[in-house]
Design the sequence.
């Protein structure tokens, strides 16, 4: 039995998702693969793989309570959970790396902020949808909550494009567009103030492990135990006194 055309599209989109995850990981070239900002990128690969798995099984769905149908619900529930965790991880990586200058920060005039807000909100919507489908499988096919997640995710993707074009100086003709070249060093500014810099200091995953190991290996206070010979002496003295 051949795979229906629509299912081939699903598989193709899942494959594109994996490619996208790889490109996001590759975009951090120059940073250690142990950097904590890489954690959401690894999770993104896991999520993409799970969605590819579920897409391959779409053609095997039969009834609402069938084995493959319920298995797909569980796989996509797991993928939605991983995606939600990755979304908060992307907020962390943005905070650790964004260029601190005008128009960038926790404000809605920064497209990066709108983008990760949209990504996180859509992940929450997908999570709620998958919970509903797993609790009530009969809603599968009629529950269209995920479409709202798709719309919000699309809006976030557009803002990510705007942010990328801005960072690559495509909006050079706009007022204050040159400010984004200050931190990378493309634009030299004479100032007595501290100029913007890239994010926070790098933290490696191994650094977190070392901190945890050091914290857990704090030497415990030892209980005092008198030497064995002294115990024998005390026992002998008591024995003589008793005699």
Sequence:
């Amino acid at each position: 039995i051949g795979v229906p055309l629509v299912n081939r599209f699903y598989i193709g989109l899942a494959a594109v998702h994996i490619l996208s995850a790889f490109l996001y990981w590759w975009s951090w070239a120059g940073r250690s693969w142990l950097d904590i900002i890489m954690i959401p990128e690894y999770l993104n690969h896991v999520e993409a793989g799970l969605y590819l798995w579920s897409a391959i099984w779409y053609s095997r769905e039969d009834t609402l309570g069938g084995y493959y149908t319920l298995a797909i619900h569980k796989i996509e529930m797991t993928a939605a959970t991983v995606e939600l965790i990755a979304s908060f991880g992307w907020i962390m990586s943005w905070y650790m790396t964004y260029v601190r200058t005008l128009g960038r920060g926790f404000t809605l005039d920064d497209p990066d902020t709108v983008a990760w807000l949209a990504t996180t909100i859509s992940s929450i919507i997908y999570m709620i949808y998958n919970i509903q489908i797993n609790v009530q499988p009969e809603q599968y096919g009629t529950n269209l909550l995920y479409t709202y997640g798709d719309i919000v995710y699309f809006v976030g993707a557009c803002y990510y494009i705007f942010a990328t074009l801005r960072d690559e100086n495509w909006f050079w003709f706009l007022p204050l567009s040159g400010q984004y070249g200050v931190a990378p060093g493309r634009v030299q500014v004479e100032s007595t103030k501290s100029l913007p810099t890239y994010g926070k200091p790098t933290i490696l995953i191994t650094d977190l492990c070392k901190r945890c190991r050091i914290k857990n290996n704090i030497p415990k206070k030892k209980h005092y135990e008198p030497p064995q010979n002294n115990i024998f002496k005390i026992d002998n003295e008591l024995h003589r006194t008793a005699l």
In short: The chain has two domains: 1-95, 98-187. The longest helix spans residues 67-97. Residues 47 and 228 are 61 Å apart (CA to CA).
